[in-house]
Amino acid sequence: MSSIRLFILSSFADLGPMHGHRLRQEAERKRVPFWTDIPVGAVYGAMNRLATEGLLREAGREQEGNRPTRQLYEITDEGRRVLTDLRRDGLTEIWFKYDPFDLALTRTDPAKLDELPTLLADRLARMKALLEERRGMIEQAMPFIGVAEEWAVRHTERRMEAEVEYLADLVAALPDLIADELNPRPRKEKP
Hints:
The chain is mainly alpha-helical and 191 residues long. The chain folds into two domains: 3-92, Orthogonal Bundle (Arc Repressor Mutant, subunit A), CATH 1.10.10.10; 100-182. It has helices at residues 3-15, 20-29, 32-35, 43-52, 77-92, 100-106, 116-141, 147-182; strands at 56-62, 70-75. Strands 1-2 form a two-stranded antiparallel sheet. The chain is elongated, with a radius of gyration of 23 Å. The mean pLDDT is 90.
């Protein structure tokens, strides 16, 4: 599933022919980087790739005032078919990516266990600050986004809230974790 492909193809399907600069402005207007993993500057290269794949095609040229002539693109029939699949996949596929934090937690240096409470308290504080920053951004964005976009930004907010709750629980469990690392309890062998 490619977020940038979904954004670009759906923008062309919804808005019709346009040039890359207008698409970039649309991404900024919709605050796309705020609720997905698309860097606004990446739209030009992605548009070129989609055109090479036959999902977009040149639809003419446009010139505004003294500005350089800009190439207009439009979505192709194949692009619409791919867009249908991307929309469905985006709603139905579950994306889960392991966090390197978990591996680092299970591979803690026994000689540095005394640093763990400080490291995790700092991580929790930074996560709380990030969540508060996110909440402020959401409130500023609310007048400019639709209901679906609001649910998208709230999804990220809830994931961040879950991370804060998890880290708070982990910090509370640190005495048991450290004791187990220093003196591991017996573990069953896998048959």
